[in-house]
Amino acid sequence: MATNSNNLVTTPGGVRPADHVHTVIPDDVVQRDGTGAFTVTRKPRVDPARTKQLVATGLYAFTPGGIRPKSMIHTVEPGQIVNRDLVFKRFDLRSGQFIPLPPVEVAPPHLPALGSGWITYAAFTENSANVISSMTTTWVVPPAPKRQDNQLIYIFNGLQDSPVTHILQPVLQWGTSPDGGGNRWAVASWFVDSSGNAFKTPLVNVNEGDVLTGAMRLTGQSGTLFNYTCEFSGIAGTSLQVNSANQMVMPVEVLECYSMSECRDYPNTLLTAMRSISVNTANASLALNFGAANSVTDCGQHTIVVSNAASAGEVDLYYTSQFSGPSPSVVSSLSRSRDQLDLFAVGFDGGVYSTFWNPDGGWFDRWFRLIDTNFGDLFTVPPQTEVSVLSRFADHIDLFAVGRDSAVYSTFWDANGGWFNHWFRLADTNFADGFKVPIQTPISVLSRFTDHIDLFVTGFDGGVYSTFWDANGGWFNRWFRLGDTNFGDNFTIPPGSPISNLSRFRDHIDLFVSGRDGGVYSTFWDANGGWFNHWFRLGDNNFGDNFTVPPGSPISSLSRFQDHIDLFVSGRDGGVYSTFWDANGGWFNHWFRLGDSNFADNFTIPPGSPVSSLSRFRDHIDLFVTGFDGGIYSTFWDANGGWFNHWFRLGDTNFGDNFTIPPGSRVSALSRFQDHIDLFVMGRDGGIYSTFWDANGGWFGRWFRV
After folding, report:
1. Where are the beta strands (DSSP E) in 7-65?
2. Closest among 159, 122, 134 to 286, alpha carbons compared
3. Bridge partners, 152 (sequence order)
């Protein structure tokens, strides 16, 4: 901007006094005042506290045009229409007289009116020369919300004038509006005027799955005033006639809501598809020009314009953004208590995302990102990174991940303060790089008791490193190597390899890895003597190579009780193998195959694939793997009968491929209590899917997206 000595400035419209140039900040609008001059004014915004106060009086209610006094909301009975008499009023066709507006009991609130509660929508303005003679949209009544929380949901197509002073709309409603209703779906036709009055037909109940067609039609014109009808096709009692309205030039498809407090307050589905959208003149179907607008996005609400084709438009109104990430990726799961599930995964953008389930509301229906504003990218990790999770007690979660810079980072959640909102680095100044590991390296985490954490990771040099946190002193701030001088390289494994750990009791840790030679190795720590300082091989001389697996393969370990360990791994031939240790006899020294003669290959999976293991109680083990075909398979061991000797598929006939994921993907398994199992995987489409087993009904038989 150039300024001269006379305090003039040069604008794109020419030179003018500086005090005539006004900055318009976000949430300001330029508006013509009563004198005809344009001024900058603050865009009216909803004041939630004030709105709550007004509704609590019982004198106000929410309409599809915002909050207004109940005395300004009028039910249009059969034999009545809406007509203009300076202002819009009901008109009795039988008597040929206007019905006087009742006295307004309270002042209209100074709150935004039309569009104030629009969450997400699509709209466009048609050239007024193309007089819209009709608009129709078809959609399906969605499932009820998971929570019944006094929320009010409106879903509709509509026509507006421009500039907007009134809107005509066939509305699907959930909740209680001035038209009545409740925790059910119902429909009515509405005409809402910016002067404060709103007109509607009586509610008609509809059911989930019903197909609705909202229709508005031009029925006449007198000069610059137009007559319209609005109805749900085929549903009696929903027809509303409005005369002497302004020309309707703006088609809209809208999700409008009030009194929403959680994402679960929305319909229990991903989206509502507004289909077969047709906007017509007297002579032709118009090509559509919808553009999407997202006013509220806290749950991932958004609109996608699928098609602007004439007579076949589609606008999808999303209640949430279903999380997706790069497939295959690991879904990390955690159960802090019997009634809580927490999930973590990394998105396409490298952000770490989470969601949760509890019996109070079911799935949260929103994936939220765990950000840190101290990072320019809000903290990201390489896509497909595994997030390691740990709960030391019911009210605390610790997360660990390797960042884009190869450093190890952590954050946490605590019931007292929620998420920490900062990712801090677990560094060691004894290393020139502060200690780094290959990107996407999994971090092995363990809590032997409430006030202690142990971490294990593989370095760039293939060494196995550890550090720890203790409530008495915090993080150790040193990464020490678990080496073995009996090896020429002090014992190394392929860089980035996973490390399996378990603690059979408070004073003992066991570690398991697959070495560069493919052998399975172990070491341990015991409070009586510290680290063993030797990595010993768990071989089997019945194999010509003493039993090897693809180097770097994950070893699955579990302890059903203090004196027993079971190990599982996929071999070079793709077979699933197991061995065990028992205090009575030590290591079994034999790796036996868990095959299935019903398969021509005795059941194999991609060599080196992870085997997920779970023990719901002392006398039972469940295993889960992903096959060559992408199917998810399971088998089990029970003390009463030993190994089942059959791998059965956990499919879903609702999917054309019976539900598959990328071959070799990890299945995340957990048991919140003895009689229940939850499984989580990332699908081929990058979505997170789950199924479950319960003692009362067995396997659910369906994979649903979280």
Report:
1. 8-11, 14-17, 28-32, 38-42, 60-63
2. 134
3. 258
Q: Of the candidates 252, 296, 253, 266, which has an alpha carbon nearest to the alpha carbon of residue 46?
A: 296
pTM of the model: 0.71
Query: At a CB cut-off of 8 Å and minimum separation 6, what does 35 contact?
Result: none
Q: Measure the N-to-C terminal CA separation of the chain; round to a whole number of Å.
A: 52
Among 9-13, 45-49, 134-138, 701-705, the minimum mean pLDDT is found in 9-13
Q: For residue 320, what pLDDT band results from cuts at 50, 70 and 90?
A: confident
| Phi, then psi, of 265 in degrees rounded to 5 | -80, -15
Contact (Cβ atoms closer than 8 angstroms) between residue 444 and residue 400? no
The sign of the dihedral angle between the CA atoms of 365, 370, 376, 380 is: negative
| Residue found by looking up tokens 């750990």 in the block | 501
- The answer on pLDDT for 450 being more than 50 is yes
* Strand-pair partners of 409: 401, 425
Q: How many helices (H) and strands (E) does the chain have?
A: 1, 60
Element (H, E) at 48: helix 48-56
Residue type, 646: H
Structure-token pair, residue 263: 């994402």
Rounded distance, CA 63 to CA 108, Å? 13
Specify the residue for token string 């209209």: 108
Cα radius of gyration rounded to whole Å, the chain = 33
Nearest one of 38, 151, 39, 166 to 114, comparing CA atoms:
166
Q: How far is residue 622's CA from residue 647's CA, in Å, rounded to a whole number?
A: 11
Please compute, for residue 373, the number of CA atoms within 13 A of its CA located in the half-sphere on the CB side: 1
The answer to whether the beta carbons of residues 679 and 697 sit under 8 Å apart is no
Lowest-pLDDT range of 6-10, 47-51, 142-146, 265-269 = 6-10
C-beta separation of 83 from 89 below 8 A: yes
Place of tokens 């709150």: 111
Q: Within 10 Å of residue 327's Cβ, how many Cβ atoms?
A: 16
Contact 76, 200 (CB under 8 A): yes
Q: Is the pLDDT of residue 144 over 90?
A: yes
pLDDT over 60 at 136, yes or no? yes
Contacts of 663 (CB under 8 A, 6+ apart): 605, 606, 609, 626, 627, 628, 629, 630
Cβ atoms of 155 and 254 closer than 8 Å: yes
Which residue from 635, 630, 636 is spatially nearest to 606, judged by alpha carbons?
630
Beta-strand runs (E) in 114-197:
118-123, 134-140, 152-160, 166-177, 180-193
Residue 41 has pLDDT above 60, yes or no: no
What pLDDT is recorded for position 109? 56
* Residue closest to 456 by CA, chosen among 412, 408, 490, 494: 408
Closest CA to 83 of 241, 243, 295, 196: 243
SS3 20: helix
DSSP three-state, residue 351: coil
The pLDDT of 107-113, averaged and rounded, is: 50
Give the tokens for residue 425: 């680095």
**Cis peptide leading into residue 163 (ω within 30°):** yes
Q: HSE-up of 577 (CA within 13 Å, CB side)?
A: 27
Give the number of other Cβ atoms within 10 Å of residue 332's Cβ. Answer: 23
- The amino acid occupying position 585 is G
Q: Where are the domains of the chain?
A: 8-42, 48-262
CA distance 606 to 570: 8
Q: Are 197 and 71 in contact (CB under 8 A)?
A: no
